[in-house]
Automatic annotation (TrEMBL):
The active site is at residue 67. Belongs to the peroxiredoxin family. Tpx subfamily. Homodimer. It holds the Pfam family Redoxin. The keyword DNA-binding does not apply. The gene is tpx. This is Thiol peroxidase. The lineage of its organism: Bacteria, Bacillati, Bacillota, Bacilli, Bacillales. Keywords: Antioxidant, Disulfide bond, Oxidoreductase, Peroxidase, Redox-active center. It catalyses: a hydroperoxide + [thioredoxin]-dithiol = an alcohol + [thioredoxin]-disulfide + H2O. Residues 25-174 form the Thioredoxin domain. GO terms for molecular function: peroxidase activity. Its EC number is 1.11.1.24. Thiol-specific peroxidase that catalyzes the reduction of hydrogen peroxide and organic hydroperoxides to water and alcohols, respectively. Plays a role in cell protection against oxidative stress by detoxifying peroxides.
Length: 174
């Protein structure tokens, strides 16, 4: 059994330090593959978005104000980016909650995916919070070949990502 890397002192929740599980992904890395759920029965992986530029928006739960705003912002921006871009929002929310949220919020461009079963995405991308089993807020941008071109780990869960910097990095790839 492989030991999961633990990173402490790099993130907080409400000002309290937490432990992130998994490696720190860096620009230039080959993006790790993952399996997450589109619904209760359907799993998807990175290969399902092959050939596209991908913005992966990681949120702890769409039922919080910051996560809601983050998902809505990228949904609005998705209209301007074309068909070669996939915007994925990943959280540990159950697929039911993601579906309800998307319907109520009019989210129709962003693909919401659930890391609830195995937390494999969170561990592969170094965002799984050991103490509360939620994924820490982060942004990853991958090119068509799954090379990481932009990374932003948000150090305090309640803070917003730098939307402008992420979108600028994304637009450079399309």
């Amino acid at each position: 059994m492989t030991q999961v890397q633990e990173r402490t002192g790099v993130a907080t929740v409400g000002g309290n330090p937490v432990t992130l599980l998994g490696p720190e992904i860096k620009v230039g890395d080959q993006a790790p593959d993952f399996k997450v759920n589109k619904d209760l029965m359907t799993e998807v992986s990175l290969s399902d978005y092959a050939g596209k530029v991908k913005l992966i928006s990681v949120v702890p739960s769409v039922d919080t104000g910051t996560c809601d705003a983050q998902t809505r912002r990228f949904n609005v921006e998705a209209d301007k980016l074309g068909d070669n871009v996939a915007i994925l929002t990943i959280s540990v929310d159950l697929p039911f909650a993601l579906s309800r949220f998307c319907g109520a919020a009019g989210i129709d461009k962003v693909v919401t995916l659930s890391d609830y079963k195995s937390r494999a995405f969170g561990q592969a991308y170094g965002v799984l919070i050991k103490e509360i089993q939620l994924d820490q807020r982060a942004i990853f941008i991958l090119d068509e070949n799954n090379t990481v071109r932009y990374v932003e780990y948000i150090t305090e869960m309640k803070e917003h990502p730098n939307y402008d910097a992420a979108l600028e990095a994304l637009k450079e790839l399309v």
